[in-house]
Amino acid sequence: MLEIKNLHASVHEKSILKGVTLTIRPGEIHVLIGPNGSGKTTLGHVLAGAPKYTVSQGQVLFNHHDLLMLNPEERARQGLFLGFQYPIEIPGVSNIYFLKTALNILRTQQGQKALDALDFKVLVKEKLDMLKMDESFLYRSVNEGFSGGEKKRNEILQLLIFNPTLAILDETDSGLDVDALKDVAAGINHFHHEGNGVLLITHYKRLLEYVRSDHVHLFYDGTIKKSGDYQLVSDIEKLGYEKVLALESI
Amino acid sequence: MNFSDIKFWEQAFELKSSLLEGHEPDWLSKIRKLAFLNFLKQGLPHNKLEDWKYNDLNKLLSRDACFAESDGGQMLSDIELPNYINSHCLVFVNGRYCPALSLRNAFSANINIYSFSEAVKIIPEVMKSLWLKKTYLTQQVFASLNTAFAEEGYVLHIPRDVQSVLPIYILFIGDHAHKNSVAHTHNFVLLEKGSKATLVEHFYDNVTEESYIHSNFTEMHLFDNAELMHYHLGDASWGACHLADWHVSQGKNSVFQSFSCALGSDFSRHDLQVQLNASGAQCDLRGLYHARQTQELDYHTSINHVKPNCKSHEYYKGILNDSGHGIFNGKVMVSPNAQKSQTSQVNKNLLLSDRAEIDTKPELKIYADDVKCTHGATVGQLEEDEIFYLRARGMGEQAARQLLLEVFVSDIVNAIDIAMLRDYVSHRILSTLEVSCGS
Fold first, then answer.
1. What is the Cα–Cα distance from A202 to A217, expressed in whole angstroms?
2. How far is the C-alpha of B88 from the C-alpha of A247, rounded, in Å?
3. Which among A19, B44, B267, B337 would be 20 to 30 A from B318, CA to CA?
4. Mean pLDDT of all residues in chain A?
């Protein structure tokens, strides 16, 4: 469903992505692991269409569309979802208004009927319960004054409500306590099925104790240096990025 | 003749004086003369004056001006009143009182509302005492000019302890006004002790591009414990020039609240002066301006803490687009014996275009030592991160921008406590924002 070929991107003329190639098929969960500043977040943002990045080279196919030709809203409407590492606060816009408006845009786009307030409430209530979130979340401004954990839960809530075909989750696990981590993992597992794909961007092994990983990629200096399975995560955890990379070059 | 030509004003005043001679009391002619002399003494504004340094005065002074001898050929039946009006309204067309369109029957018996000329006949002593306050002396030069020329306006007198529940609407409509015509309206609001009222001044027209000037001056006097909620909506067309002067003097424990919204006119200058003349008085001033194309919208507020224990609060927001120019100047004076004064001022602006401009300036003159005073001004743009977040959830770029603009104005608009008026104002603002987003 996602095919990235030799993707190069920069911000303010600083080159960040230096030839990323990655294919995600339906039903797969891919993990991108790598040190700070290696360009993982940039990859997520470039795929979602953040205007501040310039793509200089490469191609991305998403469900047979030339992804790079689409603007951010079109990508979302085609079923691509980016869970933000730092979810943006939007003071003055209530969460329920935001969620309902966005969902109905997506539904209309996909030829489904827009949900009325009542149906939406039923849908959202079930997801809130799953994530152990209080209903009062709905009536607060989007992410405003949310704790780090609440913001991340709110991203997963959106994932469950919008139900995209590809979820890119950028460090959704960082800054969470054990209970929150389990809830987030449960949310991801609930979302995932044979027809959709997940790209988890993370620093830590922790989340992977609760979420299955099919493919693990070591991301370093703007590109994927090494791919493997869960064993790669264990190696990195034990030896560190530098040593794992050195192993390969031997 | 040109607006900046002093000879034009001298001739016009001479003509006006001869026409009015014998038709109005001597004290009124005398005040007019004094006000006109004050205008001549001060002269027209120029950019070297602190209070006018940000203005593009060409927009005002290079206009042609004339006094229309008769009203425009208006077909009164064609004039539509805004949908929020159900009763209690006084209508002025091209600056002249229009009884045919006014809905006065609904006013309760203990609310006294007159047109200017009626008031001079019916309550001459009250009018005389109000005129003799010579309020124009404390205002900008156009208040003097207004005092010299204005023959029309409304007079609202609420007797002691009368609490008017329903809002009182005053409509100033431009209707096919003569090209370059100048209209002056001068109003008085008198709230006796313990009385309460809500007042709406709405300026609009059904002229599209015709150039005209409307100067309006409202003097408001709040006696002890009186409460006035004052709304203003400036929504004239691009050709219009709107000069608004408001003077408020407040008695003990009185409360003055103001909401002003400037959307229309190519040039619009608002001077709001509040005198907190007795202990415990408080004022709460709010405003919203949205300048587009080549509009210049200016708010000059001035609050004078004369006595101790008074509170003032200001909250103004602006959106500047295209080559629009906004000006906010918030002057606050706290005199030496006005201890325990509390004053706060906030001005927030959004610039939506590279060519748009905002000049924002707090001007605090604090001569007492035991005061609580805060002020802050911000100038920013729509947050690109916020727009991207919304777009990444499927919202179109225009819709995302529109939503963020709506959010920006929402707190100030939602505070309008007349539901029909709130819907009307909100609709008007949203329609101007849509134009902004689409550009």
1. 11
2. 86
3. B44
4. 93
Question: Radius of gyration over alpha carbons of chain B, in Å?
Answer: 21
Q: Does A106 touch chain B (CB under 8 A)?
A: yes
Q: How far apart are CA B192 and CA B224, in angstroms?
A: 7
Average pLDDT over residues A143-160: 93
Integer Cα distance of A205 and B352 in angstroms: 45
Report helix angle A95-109 to A148-162, nearest 10: 30
Which chain A residues touch B397 with a CB distance below 8 Å?
Answer: 71, 73
Tell me the average pLDDT across A184-212.
93
Query: What does the pLDDT read at residue B2?
Result: 86
Q: Which of residues 42-61 of A touch B (CB under 8 A)?
A: 48-52
Do residues A128 and A156 lie in contact, with contact meaning Cβ atoms separated by under 8 Å? Answer: no
DSSP B430: H
Collect all residues of chain A within an 8 Å Cβ-Cβ radius of residue B393. 76, 98, 102, 158, 162
Strand B357-366: give its sheet, edge to edge: B112-115, B154-158, B182-191, B212-222, B240-250, B267-276, B296-305, B325-334, B357-366
Please check the confidence at residue A248 and state whether its pLDDT lies above 70: no
Contact status of A102 with chain B (Cβ, < 8 Å): yes
* In contact, B360 and B328? CB cutoff 8 Å: yes
Q: How many contacts does A have with B, using Cβ atoms within 8 A?
A: 63
Cα separation, A166 vs A76, in Å, equals 10
Q: Coil, strand, or helix at residue B209?
A: coil
Helix and strand counts by DSSP (H, E) for chain B: 9, 19
pLDDT in tens, A19-35: 999 999 999 999 999 99
Burial per residue of B325-357, b for 16 or more beta-carbon CB atoms within 10 angstroms, e otherwise = bbbbbbbbbbbeebeebbbbbbbbbbbbeeebb
What pLDDT is recorded for position B66? 86
Residues in B closer than 8 angstroms to A76, CB to CB, are 391-394
Nearest CB partner across the interface for A105, out of B392, B395, B410: B395
Nearest CA in chain B to A108: B394
Dist CA B316 CA B318 (whole Å): 7
| DSSP-derived secondary structure letter, B82 | P
Nearest one of B170, B278, B279, B163 to B230, comparing CA atoms? B170
Chain A residues near residue B405 by CB distance under 8 angstroms: none
Q: Does A187 touch chain B (CB under 8 A)?
A: no
| CA angle, B433 then B63 then B4, to 5° | 130
The closest of A79, A53, A23, A44 to A170, measured between CA atoms, is A44
Low-confidence residues of chain B: pLDDT under 70: 69-77, 177, 208, 435-439
Q: Note the pLDDT of residue B208.
A: 64
What interface predicted TM-score (ipTM) does this complex get? 0.95
Three-class HEC string of chain A: CEEEEEEEEEECCEEEEEEEEEEECCCCEEEEECCCCCCHHHHHHHHHCCCCCEEEEEEEEECCEEHHHCCHHHHHHCCEEEECCCCCCEEEEEHHHHHHHHHHHHHHHCCCCCCCHHHHHHHHHHHHHHCCCCHHHHHCEECCCCCHHHHHHHHHHHHHHHCCCEEEEECCCCCCCHHHHHHHHHHHHHHCCCCCEEEEEECCCHHHHCCCCCEEEEEECCEEEEEECHHHHHHHHHHCHHHHHHHHHC
- A27's tokens: 């039903």
* CA distance linking residue B155 with residue B256, whole number of Å: 18
Say how far apart CA B247 and CA B283 lie, in whole Å: 12
